[in-house]
Write a structure and sequence with these properties.
This protein is of the alpha+beta class. 43% of the residues lie in helices and 18% in strands. It contains five helices and six strands; from the N terminus they run ααββαββββαα.
Amino acid sequence: MKHLVRRTQRDIAELVRERARELVPKRTHELERSIIVVETPRGCIVGSDKRYAATVHDGEPLPGPHEIVPRRGKALRFTIGGKTVFARRVQHPGASSFPSTPYLRDAVKDVLPKAEKLILARFGEEVVRQFKAAGFRRGMRYKRLR
C-alpha cells in the first residue's frame, strides 16, 4: 500500500510538472526546462532551482522614481544617441511592477480533477473523501528550491 501511495504522489507531481511547463512564460525556455519533481520523505515537491523562478511566479514591485548617484568617482557616464554624457546625478522615472505569472498554482488547479480521478481509481471513494478532509485541495503549496 505504501508503495502505491508513493507512486500515486509521484504520478500527480509529474502531471503538475507537465502542466506547469506548458503554462510557464517561455522567453529562453530555461525556466521551463528547470521545473522538476523532487521526492521527499513526506511527498513530492514540484519546483525550480532558478533564482528568478519565484519572481516570475509571484511578481515583484520595481522601484519607483529615485535618484541615481555615482558609487565611485564624481560623475555618471552614459551614452545617449551616440554621444557620451556625464552627470553628477540622474533622476530615474521609476518602473511599473513585474507582473506575476502563477504557473505552478494554476498547474495545481488544472491537475486537481485528474488527481482525484487517479486517487479514486487506485484507492476507492473513501480515500478520496479522506484526502479532501485532510486539506488535499488547500494543502498544496509552492516554494523556491535551493
